[in-house]
Amino acid sequence: MKHQNLSSLKNIKQQNGAVLAISLILLLVVTIIGTTSMQTSTLQERMAGNTNNDNTAFQAAEAALRNGENAVTGTLGSFSAATTTTGLYVPRTDGTNWWDHSSTWATDGSGSAQGTATSAVTQYIIEKLPAQTSSGGSLEAGTQKSSDYFRITAQSIGATSGSTSLVMLQSVYKR
User: Fold this and answer.
1) Where along the chain do its domains lie?
2) Closest by alpha carbon to 104, among 120, 77, 86, 117?
3) What are phi and psi of 62, to 5 degrees?
4) How many CB atoms are closer than 10 A to CB 132?
5) What does the pLDDT look like over 32-55, one tens digit per residue?
6) Of 65, 51, 48, residue with least CA distance to 165
7) For 109-148, what is each residue's pLDDT tens digit?
């Protein structure tokens, strides 16, 4: 049987658990880094989702605007000064615009014609602007031509439920 050196036994009894304290500190640091990384990932995912929602709303508004321009090219119904379900309006008498009033953009589709695009809520309205007369081109000098102008306004709300992405586009169309 071997006898242990008394000095080595003395060193064992003097240990104070420094490894445990250092391990706990390192565990705390790793936990903080992990939590921060998760929060950063969540934020980046939200930003990417919002960008996608904005892009979807913009593309849907463009599609609705093109649908409105195509409707102007075809035969239109009668234009009205009152709120209509056809989305065809004459200019307001109070100096404001139809597209500036929230009642025009009712979510159930009344007050505007529905556009087709993505799952985003898209609508468009067509306002008949006052007629403009202009003299003809160089071959028709002196002839007065009357043109009909239409302002098409399209609005789209992003595809995600509760979306705050709102895109509104306008074009003036001459027929």
Assistant:
1) 56-174
2) 86
3) -65, -40
4) 11
5) 999 999 999 999 999 998 898 889
6) 51
7) 444 445 444 566 788 888 888 776 665 555 655 566 667 8
Look at the alpha carbons of 153, 158, 163, 165 in this order and tell me if their dihedral is positive or negative. negative
Burial class (CB in 10 A: 0-12, 13-18, 19+), 69: middle
C-alpha to C-alpha distance for 136 and 151, rounded to whole angstroms: 23
Do 122 and 58 form a contact (C-beta atoms < 8 A)?
Answer: no
Rounded to the nearest 5°, which phi and psi values hold at 116?
-110, 135
Sign of CA dihedral 111, 109, 61, 117: negative
pTM: 0.67
Q: What's the rounded Cα separation, in Å, for the pair 58 and 53?
A: 9
